[in-house]
Here is the input.
Amino acid sequence: MNKHTLNETFESITPSLDQKERMLKNILAHTSHTSKSTPKETPSKTNYRPLLGMAAGLLLVIGLGTNLDFTTSVPPQANPTDQPVLENTHNVGLSDLEILTEKITLANTATNEVLTTLSIEETQELLTLITRSTLVESSSLDITTLFDTASPKAILTLICTFESGVEINLTIDPEHSIFLLGSNYYHMSDALTTYVTNLQ
Amino acid sequence: MNLDSNYTEQEITRLYTQYVDMVYRICFMLLKNEADTEDAVQAVFIKVMEKDITFHNSNHEKAWFIVTAQNHCKNQLKNWWQKRTEFQPDYHDSIHQDEKSELLELVMKLPEKYKLPIYLYYYEGYRSDEIAQILELNASTLRSRLKKGRELLKLTLGGNPLE
Here is the structure.
């Protein structure tokens, strides 16, 4: 390797024209909201990035359908704070993940049959795969609105559908300002399905 | 040059055009994926407006973008999910297909503390004492990081030294 090769390598790390235009558009859009007299801490998408980890970290139950598609059998609850969402629920917070000593239960929510449990490493890998998957839709809810209007104590269920057809039922706690929408969901297709297949 | 937080579109566009590639590279090298890099790049340029930055000269301007990009990415890397993100060249459209090389992967897998010095020295053309000043490192520390970074790239590739 020589200096020229190394510089070519650095040169190859370049945003595409589309990316450049998109980023500039977002930045310029921000200028209209920013003024010297009224400094405004408008959160960028980046500010939600740590919360994305929390969102994944607060995964409570993943329901498995018979054809390996994730399905949900958890109906919206009228008063979700009064009762647990599911029997096999395990609440995992972000801080807990670093020192997690228990396991997440992977269950068929239709039958409540426990399929397997995930170790710390498996949990983190699964959560990583989830957060990299392409999010096609998420319950048709605007998450920001959802958290603005939700009861602080409410536990909400979010159904995420990914490109692979995988549907994940996340039960999340809005007290932790969960944020599940964003550009982070991309390019993963069937990785999650493959992972679950391997688990079985 | 005195730029206040009431940046005009023209001013922002000038800064963006001048530094977007550099900021993008720094962020991408540290964050290792496009989505987070895009967010980071936007955040860096938004900070210019929000922080009411006064640049003394073009060198200061460029150094500010380098340091801010680095600091922003370091903050992002504090969360557990980011720390576990691995570089996956197949997922990055901005990496040209014919350049998805072993070398790029090696650069991306360099420990964080070596990446930026190597980039600033070889690509941006800064002297080692300038890099030390920008990154607020001891000059000897910076030189040893450059040396170690070179060694890692050279040894892993089994090729010739850079210099």
User: Anything to note?
Assistant: The radius of gyration of chain B is 16 Å. The helical segments of chain B are 9-31, 34-50, 58-76, 80-83, 102-109, 112-123, 128-134, 139-157. The longest helix of chain B spans residues 9-31. Chain B touches chain A through 60 residues (CB under 8 Å).
